[in-house]
Write a sequence for this structure.
């Protein structure tokens, strides 16, 4: 049993003022593995106070000084890479192959921010004025449990790069992972008060941060419903928000798609991170005339997925993060059955031989756009297959959602795929791939998938305020 009984404020690990204790579980077994002591509003006030005081000097540091900090943060994570991986496997239930990639990617975000910083226009000379992009101030970061290191580092890196200070409220379900990550940050010789981390619930710590008068911006990743609450709260002090919210991403297979490539890719996209991913392509939109070809391939590649042993390099599917999330997925699977969708593979309950919070990778066919499983974000390994008769109908189905975070297109004709991609309302459209290889590209959503952008110069721009000096 592990006990996480410290928070990190002003460069020191300290006991939280809050008294609430939350149990932590191994999602692969359902066993209790620890406890976390949660902070409260008093802890938030202390953390913001420290961040505000540190901002006075940190905002005036040079690019060289901040670049050196970013390198040290990267090195600190790499030095604890094995510990970080082990914690993510145990506490989140992430298969080791995916875990290793995410940990490396999270560390790399600090080097990416350094490169973006070195090329960012902090000052622009106009004919009669100087425009200076100044750091905003104290940033509040509220992060989810589905990629703990990535979400924290993606918000912290641009803060360091721009000279802002930060108070982080990570998911309380990720406390063991966060503890090790915080130890990495503490070892990187970052000035006291620049990074502050308070474990706690959204209703207590999150609410205190979003309403705090000394917080200049709230950067949140999570559900659309919570994002709306944060935006409403932020209006009281007119603070900025960057919201990366939910998705119900379409994956459009055009008529000419090579099914032997497109179907296994579609399965990988749908069940990425065990389906617990905002960008997962959980609506597969396919030509009606090819559905009989598609069905056996969907069944084959879903059943071929390795599920269970989290320490095997071949395992692709892990458990849901919690009993609550497992029950949510079960409710959606039952909803699909009750609303008349046809179960092709998977279904309710645990996979054979597995307990804990594992859910069966599930594929529904004969889904229409009005069904709950076609409209709502499930955040689990459930794929809804919808057919179309014409390309225009495929695009209409793809856009028939309140979300617009990610989308996918498969085709042998790249020009045609790009033409379709331009008509899909989404912050990102990937063609014939599951991975965006361009780290300088922005990430963020259209419609109710969010406000603002992260990554590269776009992420830095969210954390600065332009000031005009005219003489």
């Amino acid at each position: 049993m592990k006990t996480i009984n410290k928070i990190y404020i002003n460069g020191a690990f300290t006991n939280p003022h809050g008294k609430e204790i939350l149990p932590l579980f191994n999602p692969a077994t359902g066993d209790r593995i620890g406890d976390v002591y949660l902070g409260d509003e008093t802890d938030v006030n202390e953390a913001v106070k420290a961040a505000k005081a540190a901002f006075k000097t940190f905002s005036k540091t040079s690019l060289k000084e901040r670049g050196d900090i970013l390198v040290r943060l990267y090195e600190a994570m790499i030095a604890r890479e094995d510990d970080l991986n082990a914690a993510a496997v145990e506490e989140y239930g992430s298969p080791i192959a995916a875990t290793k990639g995410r940990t490396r990617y999270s560390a790399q975000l600090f080097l990416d921010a350094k490169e973006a910083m070195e090329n960012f226009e902090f000052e622009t000379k106009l004919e009669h004025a100087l425009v200076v992009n100044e750091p905003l101030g104290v940033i509040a970061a509220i992060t989810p449990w589905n990629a703990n290191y990535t979400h924290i580092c993606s918000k912290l890196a641009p803060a360091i790069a721009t000279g802002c200070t930060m108070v982080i409220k990570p998911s309380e379900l990720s406390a063991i992972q966060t503890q090790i990550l915080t130890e990495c940050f503490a070892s990187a010789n970052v000035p006291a008060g620049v990074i502050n981390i308070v474990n706690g619930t959204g209703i207590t710590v999150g609410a205190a941060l979003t309403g705090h008068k000394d917080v200049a911006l709230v950067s949140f990743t999570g559900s659309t419903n919570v994002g709306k609450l944060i935006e409403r709260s932020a209006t009281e002090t007119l603070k900025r928000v960057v919201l990366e919210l939910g998705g119900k991403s379409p994956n459009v297979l055009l008529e000419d798609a090579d099914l032997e490539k497109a179907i296994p890719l579609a399965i990988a996209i749908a069940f990425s991170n065990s389906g617990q991913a905002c960008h997962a392509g959980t609506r597969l939109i396919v030509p009606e005339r090819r559905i009989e070809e598609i069905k056996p391939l969907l069944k084959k590649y879903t059943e071929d997925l390795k599920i269970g042993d989290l320490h095997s390099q071949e395992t692709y599917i892990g458990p849901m993060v919690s009993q609550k999330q497992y029950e949510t997925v079960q409710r959606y699977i039952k909803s699909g059955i009750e609303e008349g969708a046809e179960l092709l593979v998977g279904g309710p309950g645990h996979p054979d031989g597995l307990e804990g919070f594992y859910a069966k990778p599930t594929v529904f066919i004969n889904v229409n756009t009005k069904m709950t499983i076609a409209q709502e974000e499930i955040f689990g390994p459930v794929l809804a297959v919808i057919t179309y008769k014409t390309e225009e109908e495929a695009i209409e189905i793809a856009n028939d959602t309140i979300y617009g975070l990610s989308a996918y297109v498969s085709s042998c004709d790249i020009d045609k795929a790009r033409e379709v991609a331009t008509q899909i309302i989404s912050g990102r459209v990937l063609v014939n791939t599951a991975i965006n290889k361009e780290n300088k590209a922005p990430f963020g959503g259209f419609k109710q998938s969010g406000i603002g952008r992260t990554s590269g110069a776009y992420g830095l721009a969210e954390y600065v305020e332009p000031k005009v000096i005219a003489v």
Notes: The chain has a mean pLDDT of 97. The first helix runs from residue 41 to 58.
